[in-house]
């Protein structure tokens, strides 16, 4: 039941981001040359590295799901025996990668602000900060969810299917956030 509820909720989130994409394309089609001028200020290599960090977090998240499905909350070997890691280690790595992504976004915002691209500077600034900002808030929500799942794994007397299901639905959300970012990256940074 939790999985079905999560999928329904993610469907509403999909519609929310579809609205943001529609806003972005509408503003882009009505502002003409300003878009080319403003997108030239983007740091593509920096954004690409930041994107690769977020995408790699999906892989570590999925490894955590595999461990949760095997009812293995914690590692059974040494710290650098990755094949023996449990859900908490993989989810902690996912959390760190997600936090690095958010820090990268903050750094990019600072760089763009120094280039006079702000939320209220023009239509491009509004579209850029609205789409990436709401995505960033969703990433932060996912980071909080990972902390709650990790805490629940440590608090549980016996790690069972209830805890595993919570980990699995958290991964649904994380993968969704990653896929949305890939779409945003392609639209904002590649299709300038």
Automatic annotation (TrEMBL):
UniProt keyword annotation of Transport present: no
GO biological process: aerobic electron transport chain
One Pfam match: COX3
Record field: catalytic activity: 4 Fe(II)-[cytochrome c] + O2 + 8 H(+)(in) = 4 Fe(III)-[cytochrome c] + 2 H2O + 4 H(+)(out)
Gene Ontology MF terms in the entry: cytochrome-c oxidase activity
Main location: membrane
SUPFAM superfamilies assigned: Cytochrome c oxidase subunit III-like
Residues covered by the Heme-copper oxidase subunit III family profile domain: 1-192
Transmembrane segments: 7-27, 47-68, 89-107, 127-151, 172-191
EC number: 7.1.1.9
Compartment(s): Cell membrane
Entry keywords, A to Z: Cell membrane, Membrane, Translocase, Transmembrane, Transmembrane helix
The protein's enzyme class: translocase
Gene Ontology cellular-component annotations: plasma membrane
Membrane topology summary: Multi-pass membrane protein
Family: Belongs to the cytochrome c oxidase subunit 3 family.
Protein name as annotated: cytochrome-c oxidase
């Amino acid at each position: 039941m939790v999985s079905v509820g999560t999928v329904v909720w993610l469907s509403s989130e999909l519609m929310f981001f579809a609205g943001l994409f529609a806003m972005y394309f509408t503003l882009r089609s009505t502002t003409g040359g300003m878009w080319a001028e403003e997108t030239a200020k983007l740091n593509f290599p920096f954004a690409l590295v930041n994107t690769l960090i977020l995408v790699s977090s999906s892989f570590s998240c999925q490894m955590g799901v595999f461990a949760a499905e095997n009812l293995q909350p914690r590692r059974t070997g040494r710290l650098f025996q990755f094949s023996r890691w449990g859900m908490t280690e993989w989810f902690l790595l996912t959390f760190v990668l997600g936090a690095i992504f958010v820090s990268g976004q903050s750094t990019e915002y600072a760089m763009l602000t120094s280039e006079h691209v702000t939320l209220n500077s023009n239509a491009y600034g509004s579209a850029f900060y609205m789409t990436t900002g709401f995505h960033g808030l969703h990433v932060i929500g996912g980071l909080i969810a990972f902390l709650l799942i990790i805490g629940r794994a440590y608090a549980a007397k016996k790690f069972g299917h209830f805890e595993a299901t919570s980990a699995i639905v958290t991964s649904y959300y994380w993968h969704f956030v990653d896929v949305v970012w890939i779409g945003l990256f392609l639209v904002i940074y590649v299709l300038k």
